[in-house]
Amino acid sequence: MKPYLRSITRANPYKLCFVCLGNICRSPTVEGLFIHRVREAGLENYFYIDSAGTAAYHVGEGANSKSQATANKHGVHLPSRARKLEYADLEEFDLILAMDSENFQNISQLDRKGKFGDKIKMMRDFDPNPDDGNVPDPYYGGMQGFENVFQILDRSSKELLSELKEYVEK
Ligand code: 4NP
Predict the structure, then answer these.
(1) Whose Cα sits closest to atom 6 in ligand 1?
(2) What pTM does this model have?
(3) Are strands 95-98 and 120-122 parallel, antiparallel or unpaired?
(4) What is the pLDDT of residue 51?
(5) What is the arrangement of strands in the sheet containing 47-53, beginning at the earlier edge strand?
(6) Of 19, 23, 24, which is best to mutate to test ligand 1, by the most ligand atoms within 8 angstroms of its C-beta?
């Protein structure tokens, strides 16, 4: 069994934290998407889903308006408030998903003693078409970039949930 997998029950829900730089575009999008999928599957009591940023620039803000418009177009709501990733998150969550290699590096730096490497993964490890392995930062671009990010995260989160579903014990 992969080290981040375990039996998932109502008493011990699986905890996922999606991480990008600002916590206003990419990670709130996949957080909202994952919440949406888990509800569709009737598994909301088996998962705890959150997101965070490696930087504090936007702490307290809701998701970026272009991320929200894109998600809403696909029937997905983005409930997040930006916060900065903390050391305690590494202890608390079962799986921490970095959007790109810079996020991955920053998360790994927070893991000073290298205790949590098994649960820090790249989101596009779950993408059937991973390209260069990074979810591109859409912040400075137009709507097409946000749609591209949504499609990448839609594919990747589908794969991730289908892997985790196997471990849900009803
Ligand atoms: P995110 O996008 O990491 O997907 O939330 C960004 C948001 C803000 C900034 C950069 C990326 N920024 O530099 O403020």
Answers:
(1) 22
(2) 0.98
(3) parallel
(4) 99
(5) 47-53, 14-20, 95-98, 120-122
(6) 24
At 111-138, the pLDDT tens digits run: 999 999 999 999 999 999 999 999 999 9
Residue nearest to atom 13 of ligand 1 (CA): 22
Q: Give pLDDT < 50 ranges for the chain.
A: none
Are 76 and 39 a contacting pair, CB within 8 Å? no
Does any ligand 1 atom lie closer than 6 A to the CB of residue 126?
Answer: no
Yes or no: say if 82 and 50 are a contact pair by the CB < 8 Å rule: no
What is the pLDDT, as a whole number, of residue 57? 97
The minimum-distance atom of ligand 1 relative to the CA of 135 is 4
Q: How far is Cα 161 from Cα 92, in angstroms, rounded to an integer?
A: 19
Q: What's the CA gap between 18 and 53, in Å, rounded? A: 8
Give the Cβ contact number of residue 28 at 10 Å.
Answer: 28
- The pLDDT score that the predictor gives to residue 44 is 98
DSSP 122-154: EGGGG-SS-TTS-----TTS-HHHHHHHHHHHH
Q: How far, in Å, is the centroid of ligand 1 from the Cα of 1?
A: 34
In the prediction, which pLDDT does 166 show? Answer: 98
